[in-house]
Amino acid sequence: MTTQTITRADVCVAAVSDAFKGSGEVLAHAVGIVPAIGVRLAKATHTPELALSDGEAFMMAEAPPLLKTAAAGGTPEAWVPFRSIFDIVASGRRHSMMGASQIDRYGNQNISSIGDWRQPKRQLIGVRGAPGNTVNHRVDYWVAKHSARIFVDRVDVASGVGNDRAAGTAGRFHDLGVIVTNLAVFGYDDSGLVKVVSIHPGVTPEELQDATGFPIDATDAPLTREPTADELEIIEAEDPKGLRHREVPET
Amino acid sequence: MNKTPLDKTLPLAEVASKLESGMTIGIGGWGSRRKPMALVKEILRSDITDLTVVAFGGPDVGLLARAGKIRKLVYGFVSLDSIPLDPNFTRARERGEIPETNEYDEGMFVAGLRAGANRLSFQPIRAGLGSDVMAMNPDLKTVKSPYDDEEYVAVPGLRLDVSLIHLNRADAAGNGQYLGPDPYFDDLFAMAADTTIMSVEQIVSTDDLTAKAPPQTLLVPRIFVNHVVEAPGGAHFTSCDPDYGRDEELQKAYVAAAKSESDSDWTEFEERYL
Question: Which candidate from A121, A160, A169 shows the least CB-CB separation from B151?
């Protein structure tokens, strides 16, 4: 048997999988290639009860090929058109890993626009479902290109609700989990501030700090675990074309 | 038995005669999926302007924004799906060419439509609390629960003068049928509007609607539809599954022309597309 090289993308996929450990029988919502593989790995290993979506209108007992919809294969197990997604969000039976154009030290996330929203410097996609997701169920974030432009002191538009804003009814089901990036895994401390949980093998604490627009402390951070041989086999089977390496290239 | 059918068919060329400047217009579909593009083109060819547009936005919003026809936009996102951003929309926003916007969470948008459809002044929802949606929409108010200590966002009902939707099939009486995987919110748009104009790939007899498809595909009942327009390819270049998928080539050309520094590239595309 040949030894398989473990890439940074593989480490990220395993970290995503770990984020879904213990989520239970909920709809896994994963934005991005690495998150899409990560939830498949989670379902194939420690959390078989996870429900996966085809990204369109179906929950899939057996997922279609990566980035494809039910039309390309797999086995649908439920019909969940957009209209029912908002009801599932409100029910709480969902766990999202969303992207972010900006994230601040309290985990506020922005996908709406950069600059003053009245006449933005850069208009992005809009808040989408981020406000509703973050006040209804567990939300993690995935950042493929960790930089100080994304990890900012303050977001321009709080689309996803951060820990400092989650009071009253907004805080009732608010549950920010982890932020997985191409450099590290973050969580939140008792005061709701972003903290380093682990740093990926090959990344230095200085490099991580330089790429983060607010102070973090990674000096004593453990290394993010590497996927096992079994996990690598699953990852390879789910992503035979290696799309994950395009999202997270080796540095 | 009276078999005389209600005939609500309307020629595409007469659509603009049903619309006026200043109206609030809901547009069905989602992103770059099953958008009533043939109907939107009729607006683009007319001098109708000053519109309030309510949509899960795609190229419909991009085209109307580029043409300067939107006074106010109510949206949860604007996207072309396979291409995340619509450059006509982002450009209009960055240049301040859309005078007023209500950017909502998607769930809030649906709550607003439901309230509009139900003739309610608002619908409560948890989404929006704690986020900058409240700051971006200073008229939004919260409502205290009469039962406990909870407080929710009161999304104002979205009542529409006209809704434009595109489905796969309909009969002449206005019973609309979708045959793809997702109904989107076209039935809600129809219910929230005083007048609904529905274009379809094909008008067939009522019998034919359920000859090959189950009755559950009959999404929009005729009691919510005023006009039926037969417009084959009427969603193009957006998708209209299973009749056709998104025309990715044309969508790319749309994006390239919209992004171009040279206005003549855009004019050329517009002439080709319209």
Answer: A169
